[in-house]
Amino acid sequence: MTKKPIMIIPFPDGKDFAITFVDDTDYSTRENTEPVYDLLANAGMMGTKTVWVFDQKRSSSFRKNEEKNLPHDLARIEGDSLENPDYLSFVLGLKKKGFEIALHNVAAGNSLREEIVEGINRFKAYFGNFPKINAFHKTNIENLYAGRDKLDVPPLKFLEWVKDRSAYQGHHEKSSYFWGDVAFRTLDYFRLPFHTILEPNTLKVNPSMPFRDRKRPFVKYWFASSDGSNCRRFLKLLSPFNIEKIQKERGACIIYTHFAKGFCEREMGKFYLNKEFQSRIEFLAKNTNAWFPTASGLLDRLLIIKKVSIVWKGLDIVINNENEADLPGLTLHGPKGMELIDAQGNKLHSSKDDKIILSVLPKKSCLVFKSNQPGDFVLKKKEEYISKFERTNIELLNYYGLLKQILLKI
Length: 410
Description:
four-stranded antiparallel sheet; 30% helix
């Protein structure tokens, strides 16, 4: 009787690890980010670019009494929005190339409920679909569960309140900034508002992602991200050592970054790629064991894997898919030399690295295989709600990262 279980590698077609990004649109223009996306497209590395639908009308202020109206000449002081026709054309081109377009709130400044609804509908008119992801911008008052409301650990919650007395209102139903119901109805994933998680394997920090949170019901699913906020931190996060680490751990890195912050350098009025960044991307793209999906592509995959279970009793192995969608390229990792035989007599042999790939696991299916090795193992489907322990760990790691950055100035 083998003691080694069958595990599911969450990435498709035998890939060992995944790397993707969410590009925060702060200070983004076509000129200072287009070279980055040209490089990534040529390397086959997809990811997610956030946008603002509207120019900024107000300050980004988490206290209502500090909110200010901005003059028209400052409407794009923090970066371009889709109200710039040339920038819209650039972003539409990115979608055609395979990049995902997401929201960074609908504007760089505070937005009222009716403006948010209009912005989301305008997004759909531009791109043919509602955004799947939103990453909160800065201190916009309409952010959901931000400030102390993002925290469960009492000392951290208290310190956050003492520090800034934030009063975010996006989840307060009586507020003119409330849009929690709209968020739940139209968006799938929200990035956790934690900015300084230094661990390169995001999936190690947040193994339940994407996850639900009973205390924060207006968001369907949350996900964590790792800090690659500027070019220097991006390169540190994706050092060759860390890339090897992510691969060995069969992990996934969701990098939260700003491609407008140092990835291109300006010379003689034109932007050129940072040479070290270019070299790192070209190095990573050569890794045939890596999967480079969009952020929601990765999250969709992780979500569907949650509802796959395996029962191995004796020589019988039963794989159950409870999803309403097919699962292509399901990768199993089992004992050395394992062989599976399906109901039609087809044999699936394990590879040199002990992987078996099912071309497709049909929706609402239960497939039965015969194994050449006996076993006794059950892999249950995963819980969608985050545990208290995992939630606490994420919060502590975020503030550890923040303290480390302050003390070491990294």
